């Protein structure tokens, strides 16, 4: 039996043993180490050591003994008709190889702390296809466009394009405070900590360079509506950068101290993939306009 995993942004630079421990729950860690040593687990068809750090787009091949039946490998979760309709209405674009969803606030892309079911399992069930993977991800409280691949080949292609910086992504963001500048670039260095991302204005070891172009769309004394274009795609890049600037995203309870909000005003509205001649743009969501009556 062979299982494949494709590495998306969530597991970038995570050690392979940590990843496997999470995804192969019914195999003991000592057995995982043995499988790595014997090349029963490979990355991109090559043998790797247990401290190998995963790269975006890596494919992990796990060769399991015949006696081992991976649970739920070909079973799909049950979806009721209402949820099927909801999933269908999320699809903003699709062809035979990929689909792009407009993720609702509160939905999670992957299973994790406190979530047994995620959009990944739901869309695998919706399409009856276990090869489906989301190649980029946005947080639970972020809404907007996310790319799903229907096969491993497409997942790899898209991951490669993300790596090369060839996929253009733009966000609408509402921040606290007044920003006068019409356009500005934030360039700093980010490091993933256990809980959140740390920002440094100077280059340091293990910190990754992060660049975003920001444009001011509208605002008043209390709030500013921004458009952000990512030049790099680091975890929590926009959230950490803007908080560091002193203009926390409205509703960002992780980075903003004592913020009481149910909604985070961070929306991925634009996606351009030149490789597929694909360009997608969504309107600014009503919840943005409604809350602060900011008209674009």
Your description of this structure?
The radius of gyration is 20 Å and the shape is globular. The strands form two sheets. Strands 5, 6, 7, 8, 9, 10, 11, 12, 13, 14 and 15 form an eleven-stranded mixed sheet that branches. The protein has a four-stranded antiparallel sheet with strand order 1-4-2-3. The longest helix is centred in the middle third of the chain and has 12 residues. Strand 14 and strand 15 form a beta hairpin. Helices cover 21% and strands 30% of the residues. The protein contains seven helices and 15 strands. By secondary structure, it is an alpha+beta fold.
Give the helix/strand layout.
Blueprint: E1 2-6, H1 16-23, H2 29-37, E2 41-43, E3 46-47, E4 59-63, H3 81-90, E5 91-94, E6 98-103, H4 119-126, E7 133-134, E8 143-149, H5 152-163, E9 167-176, E10 183-192, E11 197-200, E12 208-219, E13 223-230, H6 237-245, E14 266-273, E15 278-281, H7 286-292
Parallel strand pairs: 8-14
Antiparallel strand pairs: 1-4, 2-3, 2-4, 5-6, 6-8, 7-8, 9-13, 9-14, 10-11, 10-12, 12-13, 14-15
């Amino acid at each position: 039996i062979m299982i494949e995993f494709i590495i998306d942004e969530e597991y970038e630079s995570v050690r392979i043993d940590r990843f496997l421990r999470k995804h192969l729950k019914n195999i003991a860690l000592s057995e995982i180490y043995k499988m790595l040593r014997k090349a029963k687990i490979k990355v991109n068809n090559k043998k790797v050591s247990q401290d190998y750090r995963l790269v975006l787009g890596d494919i992990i091949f796990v060769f399991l003994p015949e006696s081992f039946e991976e649970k739920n490998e070909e079973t799909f979760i049950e979806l009721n008709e209402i949820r099927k309709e909801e999933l269908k209405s999320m699809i903003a674009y699709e062809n035979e190889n990929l689909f792009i969803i407009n993720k609702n606030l509160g939905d999670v892309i992957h299973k994790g702390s406190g979530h047994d079911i995620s959009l990944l399992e739901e869309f695998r069930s919706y399409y009856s296809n276990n090869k489906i993977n989301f190649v980029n991800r946005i947080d639970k409280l972020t809404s907007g466009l996310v790319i799903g691949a229907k096969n491993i080949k497409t997942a790899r292609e898209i991951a490669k394009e993300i790596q090369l910086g060839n996929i253009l992504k733009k966000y609408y963001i509402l921040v606290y405070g007044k920003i006068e500048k019409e356009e500005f670039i934030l360039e700093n260095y980010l490091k993933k900590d256990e809980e959140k991302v740390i920002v440094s204005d100077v280059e340091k070891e293990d910190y990754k360079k992060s660049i975003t172009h920001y444009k001011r769309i509208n605002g008043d004394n209390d709030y500013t509506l921004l458009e952000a274009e990512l030049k790099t795609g680091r975890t929590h890049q926009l959230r950490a950068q803007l908080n560091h600037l002193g203009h926390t995203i409205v509703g960002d309870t992780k980075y903003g101290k004592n913020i009481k909000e149910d909604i985070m005003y961070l929306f991925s509205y634009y996606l351009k993939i030149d490789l597929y001649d694909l360009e997608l743009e969504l309107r600014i969501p009503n919840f943005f306009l409604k809350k602060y009556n900011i008209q674009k």
